[in-house]
Amino acid sequence: MEPEENPNRPPSRLDCIKYFNALWSCYSPFHQMQNYYRYGVFDNCSSKWRDLVDCLTLKTKSKAEVEEMLMAREKARPHFWTYRTVDEASANWWKMYKHRVMMSSPPKTAGFPAPPPKSAAPKKR
């Protein structure tokens, strides 16, 4: 039975084992090679250390202090989505992906000719 399902059991204190396991797996050869392959550098696991130390620090506080700190962090955390107007979103998209659009060749769609290259000027008659 899960701890949440048992009403007679008191609520458990903060458990840091998941942060320890995350730190342990961060130093595994598989994770380090995967990080090196993806980003070209090894992972120093600083975020995992920070999470573990933070959890251990929270364990020294009273339950009321922990709840208050966690609620304050939740409120201070930025929203998952960034809300933008259409113009802001367009400008951000071009800033992020312009290099890919400029490097790729124009798509060849069935039934429609490819757009002319920008360097070709229309001929005057």
Automatic annotation (TrEMBL):
InterPro entries referenced in this protein's UniProt entry, alphabetically: Pants/Emi1-like
Domain of life: Eukaryota
PANTHER family associated with the record: PTHR28052:SF2, UPF0545 PROTEIN C22ORF39
Organism: Triticum aestivum (Wheat)
Region Disordered, residue ranges: 105-125
UniProt name for this protein: Uncharacterized protein
